[in-house]
Design goal:
The protein is mainly alpha-helical. Helix content is 83%, strand content 0%. The chain has 2 domains: 68 residues, no CATH class; 57 residues, no CATH class. The protein has 4 helices and no strands. Its main location: nucleus.
């Protein structure tokens, strides 16, 4: 596509406006438009992912600061975090048991193998 754009640009600057017929020109414009729309979508997703990551970091920082204050609210925050960690561990263990109990050969399927090994890694980390 970049090559086509360069050729088209060179043709226009060189006075050869008829290098591309109308159909080819429409295809080039359509292709370029689709590529640009795809790039915009990727940039938006990347922006929102980075925004969410920043917000999570800010929230964790605020929770850490609050937890160090040793007041009633900080105690509630710590208890809630403990419950969340326990629930997460339980969910991951049950997910592994479901995979094992399903008798699906996860080792032969690359996508299932990746999921299973990640679950195993998450359980071991906690």
């Amino acid at each position: 596509m970049k090559q086509k754009l360069k050729e088209y640009s060179a043709a226009l600057h060189g006075g050869q406006a008829n290098v591309l017929d109308h159909g080819d020109e429409e295809k080039l414009i359509q292709s370029t438009t689709e590529d640009l729309q795809s790039n915009i979508e990727e940039a938006e997703v990347s922006f929102w992912n980075k925004t969410l990551a920043l917000q999570r970091i800010q929230l964790m920082s605020a929770l850490r600061n609050k937890a160090h204050q040793d007041d009633k609210d900080s105690g509630l925050i710590l208890e809630t975090v403990k419950c969340i960690v326990l629930l997460s561990q339980t969910i991951m263990k049950y997910q592994q048991n479901i995979i094992i109990g399903s008798e699906v050969n996860w080792a032969e399927d690359p996508s299932l193998k990746k999921i299973f090994l990640q679950l195993e890694k998450n359980v071991q980390l906690q």
